[in-house]
Amino acid sequence: MDLIDSFGRTIRDLRLSVTDRCNFRCTYCMPEEGMQWLPRSEVLTFEEFERLARIFVERFGVDGLRLTGGEPTVRAHLPVLVRKLAQLRVPADSASPLAGHKPDLSITTNGATFRLLAHEFRDAGLDRVNISLDTLQPEKFLRITRRDDLARVLDGITAAQEAGFSPVKINVVVERGVNDDEIVDLARFGREIGAEVRFIEFMPLDASGHWLNEKVVGQDEIVAKVAAAFPLEPIPSRGAAPADRWRYLDGGGTVGVIPSVTKPFCGDCDRVRLTAEGQFRTCLFANDEFDLRAMMRADADDDQLAAEIQRAVGLKWAGHQINQVTFVRPSRTMSQIGG
Ligand code: SF4
Fold this sequence. Notes:
alpha/beta, TIM Barrel, 12 strands, globular, binds iron/sulfur cluster
């Protein structure tokens, strides 16, 4: 049975935030001193994540599971969870292209420790990797992340490629006056190493609350800059995927933009999220949540959990309202929701 919301959108993609903790302190995400971390007892166990993922995949045909955080790799023994999730099977009678197979498993990471984990993740069944990299300049990297780890992240990208992840995707959050001067350099970097760069419009989810529309560099501006250096042609129909994509005319690969602010794509949204403490969110910008952890720890059975998930999806709104008078920033920051 598919999970369909009141707008006719079928849910296929579940983002699992496995921790709220992070080893970086990115300025557009959290304050220098970090956040008030969740006590370990409040964070879902691997068994609880597996149980909920099993319901989404095996009852509702969700065929994409993405691990996020905070920084997911700071959660100890994470390949163990990947191995558990790789045992799941999308129902054979599902309309999903992965019917009868394991779900597509991916991770969004800052890459700093990926050299240590790449092969273990690959062996455990991970399929795809997105690594965040907002600059190629060491001093700016230090300014943005408050960590002197550019070399480790670049090595993490190499390690992902060596372990067979392909294409590795590079996530770049573009902020005006911070790294918009490097859009062409980052596109060139992706071409040179054979990775797909995804430019992400800056979203109002930063802990400091400094987001302003003026700081957003929109898709049209990003594409114009890249195309001026490397001519592009659009790749038609994104489907439910968040990124619009282009192909370099000279065969140099592909590039993408996630235009959440200037060209919202909520009409095709197939994503839902689970926070590290088991709160179910039907939208990145949702202002309401559904406490699946409390239900599990109160011995709810799978039917009751499935019913609550269906009820929540039935209430999923049409989309975010950024730049509309009705927009209310979520009470959570990106690190407490997961990308
Ligand atoms: S903002 Fe919400 S509804 Fe829109 S695409 Fe993102 S998760 Fe989906």
